[in-house]
Design goal:
The structure holds two protein chains of two kinds. By secondary structure, chain A is α/β, with parallel strands linked by helices. In chain A, 39% of the residues lie in helices and 28% in strands. In chain A, the strands form three sheets. A six-stranded mixed beta sheet of chain A has the order 6-7-8-3-9-10, sandwiched between helices. In chain A, strands 2-1-4-5 form a four-stranded antiparallel beta sheet. In chain A, a hairpin with a 2-residue loop joins strand 1 (2-11) and strand 2. Chain A is elongated and about 80 Å long. Mean pLDDT of chain A is 85; it is low at 318-323. By secondary structure, chain B is an all-alpha fold. Chain B has helices at residues 3-17, 19-40, 50-78, 80-85, 91-112, 114-123, 128-155, 159-174, 176-180, 185-193, 217-221, 226-252. Chain B is 77% helix and 0% strand. Chain B starts with a helix and ends with a helix. The chains are: A alpha/beta, B mainly alpha. The A-B interface holds A 11, 45, 48-52, 70-71, 73-74, 76, 78, 80, 82-89, 97-98, 100-103, 145 and B 1, 3, 6-7, 10, 14, 17-18, 78-90, 251-253.
Chain lengths: 323, 253
Amino acid sequence: MIKLEHMSKSYGSYPAVIDVSFEVLKGEIVGFLGPNGAGKTTTMRVLTGFTPPTEGTATVAGYDIVSHSLDARRHIGYLPETVPLYLDMSVRDYLTYMGKIRGMNNKWIQERLPRVIDMVRLGEYRDTLVGKLSKGYRQRTGIAQAILHEPDVLIMDEPTIGIDPIQVVETRELISELGAEHTLLLSSHILPEVSMICRRVLVIHDGRIVADDRPNALSEKLQHAERIELGVRNAEQREVINLLRDLSIVIDARTDQRAAVQQRAQQEGRIALLVDAKPNSKASEVIASSIIDRGWGLTNLTPLPMTLEEIFLELTTEEELGS
Amino acid sequence: MSNVSIIALKEIRTYFASPMAYVVAAAFLAITGFFFVASVSDAFSEASIRGFLAGAIFFMIFMAPALTMRLLAEEQKLGTLELLLTSPLREVEIVFGKFLASFTMVLIMAAVSLYFVLVLFIYGVPDIGPILTGYLGLMLYAGAALSVGLFASALSPNQIVGLVVGAGILTTLTIIDFISNRLSGIAAEVLNGFQLGASFSVFDLDSFGVAESGHFADFARGIISVPDISYYLSLTVVFLFLTVVVLEIRRWR
């Protein structure tokens, strides 16, 4: 549904996006992840036909976004980062207008509008002026205009930015529901959000795609270190740490600094540690046997999956080191 | 419904939903009314709309940009321009729809101003010819002024910038004879060719319409001339085209 081939976009001499290629298939929900200024918005603006690429091509629903721009745009629903609303129109008038400029006829709008208003739960505000809505409801109005004309492709730029936490949860649920019906490309700089909603993540950094995978696979593939949570009883903390550091498979061992973990560990009379070990080294087994050999009590040993945040940090810092 | 009419209707509704249109219309009728009254209250005054036209032409310098300043500046400020430009709409349709909306507002005001004509017919025996050509000229002039205003509105997200730039361009075209009078030969003729209305002769009602310079003079006299019509139409087309160009450039930034 979406296809980018060697797309580059420069503003003057500043390259915002460099040689990006990816494809999003029908029905996929793809998260577009990157820090602020990485090129997410620029890529989305190219895809929606707002701005033409400097090099390369972009295709949406089989139409080239430059040479068949109007055809391509007909298949896109777009929610820009700053939700574009006419503040002096009511929700219903605004949505009707948006429907019309997307080429919907009156009958279609009359059938579709109540359904969309229900879907985004704007029912009681349908006759309220958009300017009087709270930020979360404005966001919903923005989402409503994006899905109104039943587009094949839905592109949302930072859909949960700047709204309060409760509404963030509701908005995420809504987006997940939309993913069932649409091909969805969604940008975010919040990692748990992307892993929650999306089955595929594209990581963009400094205008380049640095990773493209499932959220889980991404963590597996990029685990440069295996992190293990460890609890030991009847032992001196320093002795345990020294022992662990002497093991060849261990990169680093240290006290678990998290307050809650520490408190519980003290109550239960054990030492809580975090160990970073080399990947694929059967670290858990080695650590477990060496602790037991010393006659200490092993209370718990849990390998921790790396969070997307850490992977993300790793990816992007690595990129910086490389360049 | 065509895209142009969808946009035009939306903008006309917005005009009537805000106090702006009413304020502008009231000011238009007050100022043109003042000029009209001044022109017909002498003992042996002529039963014509020259006074009204003089006032309308003068006030249009501010009224046209005031009507158009919101049209494209606000879309940029609210970010809705991004929505319009990613919808299946052509820039030309957006620009022309907005132009038509502002032109409709001027048409409505001109229609209301017909009561000046009614007054003339009640109390005098006016010549219908110059009235018709006067209104025709006024509409052509308004079209040109509105397209200049729309162009100015596209330049920045700030409405005031649109107002000042629009009025500035129109004022420059109006007082261009200040410069051309000091020149001679081809340069003076070329500059004279760009004279928008009837210069500051609007303040001298006796000579208004008899003024040599300005494309409005003949319309006020009851003459329809092709160069004058094509001047106003070209100005309209050129500035609408420039507005489209400005929107296209917006895409690249």
